[in-house]
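User: Predict the complex.
Assistant: Input components as received:
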Amino acid sequence: MDNFGDIGVCWRLARQLAVEHGIAVRLWVDDLKSTRRLIPSLDPGKACQHIDGVEIRQWSDPLPAVAPGEVVIAAFACPLPESFLAAMAGPKPLWINLEYLSAEDWVSGCHRMPSPHPRLPLTQHFFFPGLDASTGGLIREADYATRRAAFVPEVFWEALDLASPEPGELRISLFSYENPGLPELLKAWWESPFPVTCLVPEGRVLPGLAAEFGVSGLRAGDRLIRDSLTVRVLPFVEQARYDELLWACNLNFVRGEDSFVRAQWAEQPFVWHIYVQQEDAHLEKLEAFLGRYRIGLGPDVARALTDFWLAWNRGEGVGAAWPAFLEALPFLAAHGPDWSAHLQQVDDLAAQLVQFGKVEIE
Ligand code: TRH
């Protein structure tokens, strides 16, 4: 199988297909250097290497000539190189276009839809991850629950050289894009009547954080303290261990797609910073998710959740929305396991892809 597309999702999926389903997966990566943050054992100097059963290949131009796998997955509408498409025209592998995750209703109508190539004798099939049985489901590894049950928070905190949370302390992980609402949020946290610890993996939010604290730059290991707030900058952890951070915190700020899904499996309250799309299409996606996620919440909690998520995504009104969101946290914490159980009624994305492959190829 050949896999092209966004690395956070694609690496996780490739690994699962190889480890759990015994499939020979070749993952094409354009930027090996930044992928190394997710996979520390990756050697960016090597154009071809094997990690966790996955063949990782440098996506160069021109692409090395290889025979396409039996299945080709192009994720997030990424265009396949012409030479590879031409090579596909002979053996005609099953070609899957793995789309963005969306909770919007139209998704179920487009899931698995075929679309012939305008010139070549090839058909791509749209495959949509999603939240209900009419979609392709979400990535979730078979050993997820076992790993979570074996997790010992005290050991995790010790490894980060941090004490376990004090009673009443709020421990937050912050993984987001640049956000003009950050200063207001930090203010709410440092004015808090109880201790707040914010753990920030190295990434795009650091310059905004540094500016707010009046320091020239931040890096892993740095600690900032102001009144009730302690900020600790963490190294970007390897992808396989990111879940631990989400399990250990009682509020997780996440973004994009993969961390957003992991936060849902972690069952803790979370805030999604969605990636911005043209014509504010992302806000519709955000509302569509909230429309489903809110089911079962009381009206005040649902309102507090919606107001805070919208404020964070618009980058304004974050401070005003925080107090009600804070009050809603215990209810959202209770909601997390119900939501995760609801999602688990749907087969996971890897299993559905394998099933689809079996039906289409045989
Ligand atoms: O990187 P992202 O912003 O990715 C997004 C989406 O994939 C989206 O579909 C795409 O269109 C957009 O990019 C441009 O956020 P995401 O999806 O959460 O991916 C981040 C990955 O990093 C995820 O796999 C979790 C991982 N991670 C670690 O491995 N260690 C860490 O310390 C942290 C904070 C994250």
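The pocket of 2'-deoxy-thymidine-beta-L-rhamnose is lined by residues 6, 8-9, 38, 76, 100, 175, 201, 236-237, 239, 242, 255-259, 275 (CB under 6 Å).
Let me know if you want any component modeled separately.
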